[in-house]
From TrEMBL:
Residues 33-42 have a biased composition (Acidic residues). Coiled coil: none annotated. Residues 8-32 have a biased composition (Basic and acidic residues). One of its GO terms (cellular component) is alpha DNA polymerase:primase complex. The gene is pol1. Residues 95-105 have a biased composition (Basic residues). GO terms for molecular function: chromatin binding; DNA replication origin binding; DNA-directed DNA polymerase activity; single-stranded DNA binding. This is DNA polymerase alpha subunit A. Its EC number is 2.7.7.7. GO terms for biological process: lagging strand elongation; leading strand elongation; mitotic DNA replication initiation. It holds the Pfam family DNA_pol_alpha_N.
């Protein structure tokens, strides 16, 4: 069955006028589906449901040796069986990784300091000849002197 139902043209026109008047289309929408998405049960009823699942835990007749098993327990209850040995191993691995990161950071810092010292020692100014102040002044005065002597009369067309 379709979720939409056909409305007479007059009703649709009235809805359109109301929407244009500022009422909005969201106020006109009405849900036709069931409002209950889940069943509310008491704690005792829930325990009965879980017990019935456990009673029929082997509901799969033949899975062709795939090894699928469902014991009827909820997924969030399955995570309670942890080994404490895993935690100790994880802690040791964490310490090793942390020490390794410290070594890596120290090696990077040493390499960076070495690179910076090399860059400071070999700067571009070491390769350029030093120009005396007198030569620079002579060069600038020759440039500016050439501009003063040139006439600035406009060209005729």
């Amino acid at each position: 069955m379709s979720r939409r139902t056909a409305k007479p043209a007059k009703d649709r026109l009235a809805d359109l006028r109301a929407a244009r008047a500022g009422e909005g289309r969201s106020k006109q929408w009405k849900s036709t589906e069931d409002e209950e998405l889940y069943d509310e049960v008491s704690e005792d009823d829930y325990k009965k449901i879980v017990k019935s699942r456990l009673d029929r835990d082997d509901f799969i007749v033949d899975d062709d040796g795939g090894g699928y098993v469902d014991n009827g327990m909820d997924a969030f209850e399955a995570g309670k069986d942890y080994d404490s040995d895993d935690d100790e191993e994880n802690e040791e691995e964490r310490r090793k990784r942390k020490a390794e990161r410290k070594k890596t950071k120290a090696a990077l810092a040493a390499q960076r300091a070495k690179d910076e010292a090399y860059a400071e020692k070999n700067s571009i100014t070491d390769y350029q000849p030093v120009v005396s102040n007198e030569k620079e002044q002579d060069f600038m005065s020759s440039l500016l002197g050439g501009l003063d002597s040139a006439s600035s009369s406009p060209l005729e067309r």
